[in-house]
């Protein structure tokens, strides 16, 4: 009766555990995913833009993403150069899922929008964006600050980031902006000059002097221009993501793998994909064609000029400045989040630094984040994107906690054996030098004699620092690999080295060095000034050189005095974040060539020395944010361990319920009542079996093979579960593991020994496993009974069947159990051994113990046992003392030559009844008359008696039962 | 009948001895019905089970192989070494940089197959081999309660597995120390982890590997109670491990792969670094514990309710 509730309990417990585990897995592996339904509306708007007097309509392709709840604040997402509104689709959906109305649009000259690329010109792209803000103000889904003034934030990567800055400067209706990996001054980004003969700008960590007459960054400019022409590239929105703290390695290498397979050298970052998205999103007919592609004529001419001469005209510089955020940053007062990449040779940290300085000076509040990506290292990963969304959610909707105006920078750690490198984030209270104290600069000694470097004719061969486009592929494999690709050529490089560090130096920003450059007397110096490239290497103890961020600082030194007098120049070394480990040292290398830049072609030679024997290295102390600590998994671990403990407790509690003994049966070795074992499929092995064994008996369980004897004994040992009925041993009900089993010694269906141990060791270890006191085992006596002689010290695997059997019986006798259960103990023994076994069992029972023997042989039971239980097909056939059952009372059988005569004679004896003839045998109930008397009467009557004995009624029945089995 | 059998007989004196002993001692029974001296919590104690397992040839061979393996690797590097710069490249190239690097390599090369196999062997074999020797029923008839039998078997297997997981890096460390000296551990990026830190990292790595392999232990244990053939249980667990590693190679599965039990098998290499990122280590621990708990519970359920017929 108890079985049903118990199994229900089990299944319930199991289901609860399974459910808990599933919930844990789901909670841990899928953190906050709001999963909102996002609706989109695509629409081509006709806007009017252009300078005064030349205003013309332009078709702008837009998509509006609507969250579940409106009205809501709006976010405008501008795409990168070469992309379209489709390349920001994933970002837009993430924003919309967080409850923003999102507007994405293809800028002029990209995607399906009309017009030409004017590089974020205030008259064109910025004007378009302003009109989009006005359009948003008319949408009922957008929350308004006032009439015609929507609550709106602007974000975007690279080209789109610059638009965000330009728009915020031009339109006060913009409430917050989050530009990503973008520029401050395009003329400095494409024509940088990081050297200055004057003073460096003040206290920010990555400030560059932004000197005039920059060196043309031709490799990047070429890629930039080509992507505006609509040449090749992938249309996907997402390039590889930058590594983040705790990134699951699997997902990031999948992304990197996809990127490496892209056919074009596409610096695909933040939607700034090279090439348009031509796949199904073709520009309007007639918009392309000609050497300028979709570029506006001014832009195209300016590029052609720089690309051919390497030197920009004043108009070109003015044009580039006019379309750069630097032209409006003095008007940006809105809260600004500047996200810049540490792996970015296109728009370095100095560009974000300039933006931060200028916006802070204008009165805007600025938060700066440097992440472990960039144009060379991948777009922001999921954690950073979430941080950006939360920042905008706070600024636009006061949702969440105030993100403040702190400064965060990512530090890339060791490369892992697999997957992405590890990243930690350092958080400082503010971006140094904006409003508070200037950045700390640590003076690092540099030494090295003055060295002569040459600029080879044609600037060929050139040194290699970065591989624009390819760097992002290398970065995908683990950002720091790209830092290993740099090559400096001998004769073109002056090398200065610092001392070996004895503690880690975490460089965060742009170090400054002062150089002393002079022309070699006798060689005419270049009229355009000396072009030099300064690099800061991290050199390991084994000589491995890493160029952090693959970044170089191009310097154009004003034309050098012919007389060999030196010019002192201060160089802002590349803005980097780099932990320089103890045992490493810094190395400052100045080269004359770099393949990514347009350098003077005429040969020249310079003497380069250190003007100052230290370099000033910026350090920004902060707290180590690490990754997000793995809180989810840790909670999961605690939950799983908790479930485990609960399970163990539940099992322990259930074990405590022990059966109550039956007080009347405490002295009865075995009572079986209604025992049934039914197997699935209908086979009934034991059917309603009941019998009882008393103390001192040797009971034989007799039945043909398959009668259910072994099944009964297995149930008695608690090995298999009965379907019904009970087994009570000394009044205790048998369950698996019932303690009363310790009073039973058993040998059922074959021996079970560890083959690699000797017989004696097997018995000793078996007894040790019982945990009972060693002196109660009587191993010696048991081994004597087995009588294996010297063989007991051999491994059991060498034993014969008979030897194992004897050892198994000895094992059953260990501890001299009160009930000895032996299943077919004489199988495989030879006759003398069988004989001995019988004596052992009878002697054992004589000590007041009980023996239960199963056998399929009647003779065996007759000769060994005093009581017998006969089974057939699982049912009890007969039970009782052997004498009674075997001899069947006073009946006798006589085998005679003349049965009929003998029958008559027997009937004549007084008291003899039930005389029957069966072939040559005559059966009779003698009823007290001794058989010898009956034989005497028969013989005297002339009947020859061949044999006389008790009538074996059982045998008749048994033979019938056993049939051909015997 | 063999010659040995002919000498097998019971001396009549032995019967007398037995009956004398039996007459002299009659043990009472406690309230639970157990014979005097029997207590369930003393059955199959750990040291007994360890003695039963440690004397098996397969245990000894396995430990012997684990001792031999680092020597084989060291010899292989001696024979095949052609690169004079021993401080750059991957973990394999860095193996001869120092003793810690050699240990890292040893763990690295054995991580895919050998270590899961060791755990599968100890856990998968434990119940199934008793079943195949028919000795399981006699243990249960002692009686060792089933939950205790499984728990003690698991504990002994855990001890044996952990010993193996410690033995391998320990021998590798000694071999490395003699061959390459006590230098700092060099990671593939050239970051140097000083010697004491590297030792601690290796220690933690061994602990992590042991935890991470709990899933194999649980699975092997489950198969062990499900299948009575030891080879089936061990082989099955190893097979699942290999299958999981094959699926791991299919990058198209993307982040689904993090649900594979072997996904975090090498996360211990995060510990060999100057700044340790615990994320994957925590995830790997969680993954292993969940798999271990599920398989362990299944094994437990199955074993406590099944009919023992072998």
Question: Features of this protein?
Answer:
heterodimer, A: 966 residues, alpha+beta, Rossmann fold, 4 domains, eleven-stranded mixed sheet, six-stranded mixed sheet, 23 helices, 39 strands, B: 310 residues, mainly alpha, two-stranded antiparallel ribbon, 2 strands, 1% strand, elongated
Word description of this protein:
- The complex is a heterodimer of chains A (966) and B (310).
- Chain A has 966 residues and is of the alpha+beta class.
- Helices cover 28% and strands 25% of the residues of chain A.
- Chain A has 23 helices and 39 strands.
- In chain A, the strands form eight sheets. Chain A has an eleven-stranded mixed sheet with strand order 1-2-4-3-7-8-10-11-12-13-25, sandwiched between helices. In chain A, strands 31-32-33-28-34-35 form a six-stranded mixed sheet, sandwiched between helices. In chain A, strands 9-21-17-23-15 form a five-stranded antiparallel sheet, with no helix packed on it.
- In chain A, β29 (724-729) and β30 (732-733) form a beta hairpin.
- In chain B, 65% of the residues lie in helices and 1% in strands.
- Chain B has twelve helices and two strands.
- Chain B has helices at 3-6, 12-24, 46-54, 57-80, 99-111, 114-133, 135-141, 146-180, 195-212, 214-226, 230-249, 279-305; strands spanning 185-186, 192-193.
- In chain B, strands 1-2 form a two-stranded antiparallel sheet.
- In chain B, a hairpin with a 5-residue loop joins β1 and β2.
- Residues 1-6 and 84-89 of chain B have low confidence and may be disordered.
- Classes of the chains: A alpha+beta (966), B mainly alpha (310).
- At the A-B interface, α1, α7, α13, α15 and α16 of A face α2, α3, α7, α8 and α12 of B.
- Chain A: GO terms for molecular function: ATP binding; ATP hydrolysis activity; dipeptidyl-peptidase activity.
């Amino acid at each position: 009766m108890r079985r049903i509730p118990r199994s229900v309990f089990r299944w319930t417990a199991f289901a609860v555990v399974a459910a808990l585990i599933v919930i844990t897995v789901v909670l841990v592996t899928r953190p906050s995913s709001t999963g909102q339904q996002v609706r989109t509306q695509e629409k081509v708007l006709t806007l009017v833009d252009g300078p005064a007097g030349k205003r013309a309509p332009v078709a702008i392709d837009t998509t509006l993403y609507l969250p579940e709840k409106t009205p809501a604040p709006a976010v405008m997402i501008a795409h990168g150069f070469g992309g379209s509104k489709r390349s920001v689709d994933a970002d837009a959906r993430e924003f919309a899922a967080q409850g923003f109305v999102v507007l994405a649009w293809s800028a002029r000259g990209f995607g399906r929008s009309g017009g030409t690329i004017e590089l974020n010109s205030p008259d064109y792209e910025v004007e378009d964006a302003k009109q989009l803000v006005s359009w948003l103000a008319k949408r009922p889904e957008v929350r308004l600050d006032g009439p015609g003034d929507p609550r709106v934030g602007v974000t975007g990567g690279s080209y789109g980031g610059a638009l965000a800055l330009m728009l915020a400067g031009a339109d006060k209706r913009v409430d917050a902006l989050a530009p990503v990996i973008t520029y401050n001054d395009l003329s400095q980004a494409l024509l940088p000059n990081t050297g200055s003969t004057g003073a460096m700008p003040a206290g920010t960590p990555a400030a560059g002097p932004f000197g005039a007459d920059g060196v043309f960054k031709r490799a990047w400019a070429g890629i930039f221009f080509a992507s505006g022409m609509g040449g090749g590239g992938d249309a996907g929105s997402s390039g590889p993501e930058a590594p983040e703290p705790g990134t699951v390695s699997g997902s990031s290498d999948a992304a990197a793998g996809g990127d490496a397979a892209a056919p074009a050298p596409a610096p695909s970052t933040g939607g700034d994909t090279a090439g348009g998205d031509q796949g199904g999103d073709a520009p309007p007919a007639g918009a392309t064609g000609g050497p300028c592609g979709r570029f506006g004529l001014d832009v195209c001419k300016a590029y052609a000029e720089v690309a051919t001469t390497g030197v920009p005209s004043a108009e070109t510089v003015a044009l580039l400045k006019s379309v750069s955020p630097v032209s409006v940053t003095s008007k940006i007062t809105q809260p600004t989040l500047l996200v810049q990449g540490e792996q970015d040779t296109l728009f370095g940290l100095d560009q974000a630094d300039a933006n931060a300085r200028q916006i802070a000076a204008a009165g805007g509040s600025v938060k700066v984040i440097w992440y472990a990506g960039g144009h060379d290292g991948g777009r922001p990963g999921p954690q950073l994107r979430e941080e950006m969304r939360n920042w905008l959610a706070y600024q636009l909707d006061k949702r969440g906690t105030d993100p403040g105006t702190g400064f965060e920078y990512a530090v890339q750690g060791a490369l892992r054996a697999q997957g992405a490198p590890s990243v930690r984030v350092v958080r400082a209270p503010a971006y140094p030098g904006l409003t508070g104290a200037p950045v700390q600069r640590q003076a690092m000694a540099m030494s090295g004699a003055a060295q002569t470097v040459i600029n080879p004719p044609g600037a060929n061969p050139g040194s290699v620092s970065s591989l624009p486009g390819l760097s992002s592929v290398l970065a995908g494999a683990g950002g720091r690999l790209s830092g290993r690709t740099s090559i400096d050529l001998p004769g073109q490089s002056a090398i200065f080295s610092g001392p070996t560090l004895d503690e880690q130096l975490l460089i965060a920003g742009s170090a400054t060095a002062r150089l002393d450059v002079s022309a070699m007397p006798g060689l005419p110096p270049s009229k355009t000034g000396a072009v030099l490239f300064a690099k800061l290497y991290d050199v390991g103890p084994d000589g491995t050189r890493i160029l952090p961020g693959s970044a170089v600082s191009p310097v154009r030194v004003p034309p050098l005095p012919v007389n060999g007098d030196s010019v002192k120049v201060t160089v802002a070394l590349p803005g980097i974040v780099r932990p320089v480990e103890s045992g490493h040292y810094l190395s400052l290398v100045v080269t004359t060539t770099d393949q990514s830049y347009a350098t003077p072609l005429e040969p020249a030679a310079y003497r380069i020395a250190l003007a100052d024997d230290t370099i000033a290295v910026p350090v920004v102390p902060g707290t180590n944010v690490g990754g997000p600590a793995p809180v989810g998994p840790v909670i999961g671990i605690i939950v799983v361990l908790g479930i485990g403990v609960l399970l163990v407790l539940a099992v322990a509690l259930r074990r405590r319920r022990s059966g109550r003994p039956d007080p009347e049966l405490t002295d009865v070795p075995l009572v079986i009542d209604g025992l049934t074992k039914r197997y699935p499929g209908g086979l009934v092995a034991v059917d309603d079996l009941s019998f009882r064994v008393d103390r001192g008996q040797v009971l034989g369980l007799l039945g043909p093979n398959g009668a259910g004897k072994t099944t009964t004994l297995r149930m008695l040992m608690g090995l298999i579960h009965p379907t019904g009925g009970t087994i009570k041993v000394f009044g205790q009900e048998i369950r698996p593991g019932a303690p009363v089993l310790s009073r039973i010694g058993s040998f059922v269906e074959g021996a079970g020994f560890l083959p690699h141990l000797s017989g004696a060791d097997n018995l000793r270890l078996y007894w040790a496993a019982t945990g009972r006191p060693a002196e109660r085992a009587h191993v010696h006596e048991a081994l004597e009974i087995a009588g294996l002689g010297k063989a007991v010290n051999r491994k059991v695997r060498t034993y014969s069947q008979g030897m194992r059997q004897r050892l198994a019986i000895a094992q059953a006798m260990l501890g001299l159990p009160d009930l000895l259960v032996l299943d077919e103990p004489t199988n495989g023994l030879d006759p003398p051994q069988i004989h001995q076994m019988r004596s052992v069992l009878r002697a054992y029972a004589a000590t007041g113990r009980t023996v239960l023997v199963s056998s399929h042989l009647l003779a065996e039971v007759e000769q060994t046992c005093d009581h017998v239980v006969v089974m057939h097909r699982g049912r009890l056939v007969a039970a009782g003392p052997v004498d009674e059952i075997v001899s069947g009372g006073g009946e006798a059988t006589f085998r005679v030559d003349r049965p009929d005569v003998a029958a008559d004679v027997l009937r004549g004896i007084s008291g003899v009844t039930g005389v029957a003839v069966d072939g040559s045998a005559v059966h009779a109930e003698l009823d007290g008359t001794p058989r010898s008397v009956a034989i005497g009467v028969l013989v005297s009557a002339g009947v020859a008696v061949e044999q006389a004995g008790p009538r074996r009624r059982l045998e008749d029945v048994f033979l019938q039962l056993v049939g051909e089995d015997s | 009948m063999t010659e040995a059998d002919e000498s097998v007989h019971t001396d009549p004196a032995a019967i007398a001895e037995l009956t004398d002993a039996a007459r002299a001692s009659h043990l009472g029974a406690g309230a639970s019905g157990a014979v005097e001296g029997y207590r369930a919590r003393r059955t199959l104690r750990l040291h007994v089970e360890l003695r039963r397992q440690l004397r098996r040839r397969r245990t000894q061979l396995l430990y012997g192989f684990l001792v031999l393996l680092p020597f084989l690797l060291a010899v292989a590097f001696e024979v095949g070494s052609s690169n004079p710069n021993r401080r750059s490249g991957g973990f394999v190239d860095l193996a001869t940089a120092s003793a810690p690097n050699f240990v890292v390599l040893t763990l690295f090369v054995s991580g895919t197959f050998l270590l899961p196999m060791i755990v599968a062997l100890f856990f998968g074999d434990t119940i199934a081999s008793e079943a195949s020797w028919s000795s399981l029923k006699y243990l249960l008839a002692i009686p060792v309660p089933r939950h205790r039998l499984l728990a003690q078997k698991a504990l002994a297997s855990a001890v044996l597995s952990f010993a193996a997981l410690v033995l391998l890096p320990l021998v590798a460390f000694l071999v490395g120390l003699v061959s390459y000296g006590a230098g700092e551990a060099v990671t593939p990026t050239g970051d140097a982890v000083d010697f004491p830190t590297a030792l601690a990292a290796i220690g933690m790595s061994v602990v992590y590997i042991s935890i991470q392999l709990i899933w194999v232990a649980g699975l092997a244990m489950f198969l062990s109670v499900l299948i009575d053939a030891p080879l089936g249980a061990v082989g099955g667990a190893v097979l699942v491990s290999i299958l999981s590693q094959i699926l791991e190679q299919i990058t198209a599965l993307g982040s689904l792969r993090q649900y594979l039990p072997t996904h975090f098998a090498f996360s211990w290499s995060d510990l060999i670094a100057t700044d340790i990122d615990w994320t994957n280590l925590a995830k790997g621990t969680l993954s292993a514990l969940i798999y271990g708990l599920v398989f362990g519970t299944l094994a437990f359920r199955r074993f406590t309710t099944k009919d023992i017929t072998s």
